[in-house]
Protein: 10074_t:CDS:1
Organism: Ambispora gerdemannii
Amino acid sequence: MALLLPSNLKNALYTLSNKCVISKTININPLRYLILRNTHSRFSSTTTSSSIPLRPLPPPKPSRHFKKPHREQEPTKNNDYDYDTYTKNLNAKILSLPEVKSLLAHPEFVQTRGFSSLNEQTHYHPFTARTLMGPGKFAVSPIVFLNLQTRELVGFQHIGRDLSGHEGIAHGGLLATVADEMFARLVIPCFPEKNAATVYLNINYRAPCPSDAIIKCYVKIADLEGRKAFVEGRIETIEDDDNDNINNIVVVDANGLFVSIKKIETNRKFAT
């Protein structure tokens, strides 16, 4: 069956016996040929294998690593929410986690609260214990469980939304700080001098970590050689699904080397 074409294309393109013949005088893009062939397929009795239908790309699937949970409004310095009530509720929520309850009942893990030894009169300016503490940041002190027999640590920390890098996602540098802090909390009690310094810390980011969320830190000393401690660990987010199940997602894994040091002299004069 012949295909009727406009007169100006009569010498350019025609079909005969279900075959398409292209004139030597005009070059037609193969992709346009396929579209034209599919558009006028009703004029053909058969469809050849070269007539491949063009399909749109499927929409991108949402990341399985990041799901912004529904939470109550986190207080900041700019709103009128009762901050004391919020911190009490947040602390109770952390203590009610199944993993925390299990560790509280474990005889070999000892619970400690981070920054509990500091007070307003302490002449010390810690980054994590003071600068990062407050509304929208670290609203409550971390809950830490230590097992010095197996040289393990499990810690739980809430990250406020003012500690974001991208909106709604915790800053990567903050997660590195949390990892360094938790590593040191395990290493320091294992050294006779009860003091340590970081030699190196390798951080691998595995998935986005939402801000205004509770994270879990697991740390273990892989090897202890004299004044050296080789440490490994990871950071996980704790998400509640609709069935109140706890789903942990690894967002960071890390390893590092810490060395035992003597007491650091803090009365030295530094250049300004």
Q: What stands out?
A: Residues 172-190 form the longest helix (19 residues). The beta strands are 13-16, 19-22, 110-113, 143-147, 152-159, 196-205, 213-225, 228-240, 246-260.
